Amino acid sequence: MEVQKSVVDSLNDLLKENCDAKRGYRKAAERLDDPSLKGLFMNLSEQRDNFKKIVREEILSLGGEPQVFRQVDGPIQNAFAQPDLLLVLNTVEKTLSGCLRIEVDTLQAMKQRMAQYEVKESTHQVLTGQLEYIRLTVLDLRSLPDERTPILDF
To answer: Which domains does the chain have, with CATH numbers?
Structure first.
């Protein structure tokens, strides 16, 4: 039972990270004028909202209680907290790169934590799936021919 509680606690941590990312990307989109960047950040926000739903379902399937995060002030929201920051495109690109790196690092740490336990296949798939979506986003951003493509070095 202790293992189950640890897995649910870890998934609630991931739920919190997804809340942070969803709100951070949405705030960034609301502050940007560039339609392509605005669209990119809105897509990332919607993707993280979908991640939240999947993680909540997994927590429930394990018999746990998903936490509700009304106010999350995490690293991704903090990255976009300064309105002046988003005025410089190069800074937006570097900030996005940093945010995606935070997400990849968070998911990899979560997978390592979960590797300590015997987890259900569905839990493993949730983590692997989210990590893969974020990695694909990174690859998509790297392949954009636009001169504004964020520099992603991981």
So the answer is: 2-143 (1.20.1260.10)
- What confidence tens digit (pLDDT) does each residue in 34-89 have? 788 788 889 989 999 999 999 999 999 999 999 987 777 777 767 766 656 555 65
CA torsion 154-127-119-66 (nearest 10°) is 130
Q: Are 107 and 48 in contact (CB under 8 A)?
A: no
